[in-house]
Amino acid sequence: MQTAVIGSPNSGRAIILPTDADELLRWRRGHRAYTYWCGTQLGGCGNELSDRLYRDKVCHFAHRPHTSCHRTATGANSADHLFIKDDLAAWTGGLGIKGRATSRDLGSGPGDAVDFRAGNGGQQHVRFQFSKLSHTEWASTRDQLTREAATLDWVFGPSTVQLETMEALCDEYGYLLRFRFETHGAVRHIRLRAEDPRNSTEWVPLRACVMTPEGLRVPGVELRRRTSGSRPLEVAGTAVAPRSRDDRVRALREALISAARFRTRLTWEALCRTAGGDLLGVSPQDRAGLLFAVEQAGEEGAPLLSALLRTGEGEPPPYIREIVAAVGGGTPATAQVLKRWCQREADRAFAVYGMPPRTAPARLELTADGRIAAQRTAPATRRTIVHVEARASLLEVTPLHEALRGARERQDRRLVVGLLEQAEDSIVTLPKSEHAKLLREMRTARDWLNSGVTKRKRKRQALVNPGEKVRAKKKGSTLRDARPLPGLGEKPKKRKPSQ
């Protein structure tokens, strides 16, 4: 257990225990009067904790003997919803505004979200989302909060936002607000940035942001806007001129590329929300003609963007078969063949237009009778592994368990420690298969770190006593070298015979 609260069970003053023995000793000397508790605001039992100091493994908090506790979140990020309140209090004090932060339990714990309200009557609302919401839950909650506030900003933590939610926010505002935490000693501080499908602003501390009448503003972000592919805004009393075919094709292509960046497949109706509402009434035959023009505007061999379209049941629309044949891909014989072919093209689009881009898989070839051709085995090639330095975007580039393994193989202790911290932040949001892989690699990495501590300890001991070999402790009684108690181990004095 790495986090606790200071002073009492209901306290909101959180602490991350230093994991290094020397750092913990310095902390103890500077805070002798502190008591630590498994706080109720952390989802804990409210019992007192003790800080355990170790030289051969990571230092941590522990319950007293015979204590029952069902707290589930114990990593370094488990108190972030309390640390953010401290940052918000310091931020509002610096700006000279009044605000109030409240933790929300949305079903999985007291730190699912933090609501910050400012302005007259709390009319300006910022929600910091710590747990993952489905798009339906987000949409219904947003409608409710919008009715209660003049402005609403939603800031998402790592792995907490669905693709449909990202698409909706970027479509409306042009960007998505994100946050993460960085550890500084025994506390953590929040950092924010704005992201869009093409680029992102720099991570900045909360003190660099401002609260305006329009809501929360992050440096580097313009006033709220719609994306260039959004449908034209209507002005009261003014008729919007119909768009030309070329403008429609251009808007469709931009909207499909944006969907590929977010790795999402969408219906025609969802596509029209971005490309323009005037496309909703287009017949299926005319849709095929517009989409064929979209494919012609791309380079030869590029992924088929039309393959990103789906029906409400998740199947490719029937008119996509015509587009596949028109671009020279063949004519799929069955709906199942079409579905599999479109899924491969969607994967190719995600690879080419994703952030960052990667090598796309090969296109599926169809036989003359519309079946999927047998895949040719590629010749064996030597692979070059490029190690990427662990930064904030690492989770978007390499799976964490692979990054941890690579850092451990390179003997980079500092990188391993940093990746372990990121792993604790994101492991609870991963799917079951990825969760198990990451958990195994985290255990291996911790064992490797602890073994390094033991080796350094032996080396230091050898330097202090170069002539003395380190002897292994023999099994046996722990009192072998202890001083005997008075009266034990002494020979009884012989008594002289009485005369």
What is the topological layout?
Elements: E1 3-6, E2 14-16, H1 21-30, E3 36-37, E4 48-52, E5 60-63, H2 80-95, E6 99-104, E7 113-118, E8 124-129, H3 135-148, E9 151-156, H4 163-173, E10 176-184, E11 187-195, E12 204-205, E13 210-212, E14 215-217, H5 245-261, H6 268-275, H7 284-296, H8 320-326, H9 335-353, H10 394-397, H11 400-409, H12 413-426, H13 432-464
Parallel strand pairs: 8-9, 9-10
Antiparallel strand pairs: 1-2, 1-3, 3-4, 4-5, 6-7, 7-8, 10-11, 11-12, 13-14
Commentary on this structure:
- The protein has 499 residues and is of the alpha+beta class.
- The chain is 35% helix and 14% strand.
- The protein contains 13 helices and 14 strands.
- It has helices at residues 21-30, 80-95, 135-148, 163-173, 245-261, 268-275, 284-296, 320-326, 335-353, 394-397, 400-409, 413-426, 432-464, and strands at residues 3-6, 14-16, 36-37, 48-52, 60-63, 99-104, 113-118, 124-129, 151-156, 176-184, 187-195, 204-205, 210-212, 215-217.
- The strands form 3 sheets. A 7-stranded mixed beta sheet has the order 6-7-8-9-10-11-12. The chain has a 5-stranded antiparallel beta sheet with strand order 2-1-3-4-5, with no helix packed on it. The chain has a two-stranded antiparallel ribbon with strand order 13-14.
- Helix 4 links the parallel strand 9 and strand 10.
- The termini are far apart.
- Mean pLDDT is 79; it is low at 223-240, 380-397 and 472-479.
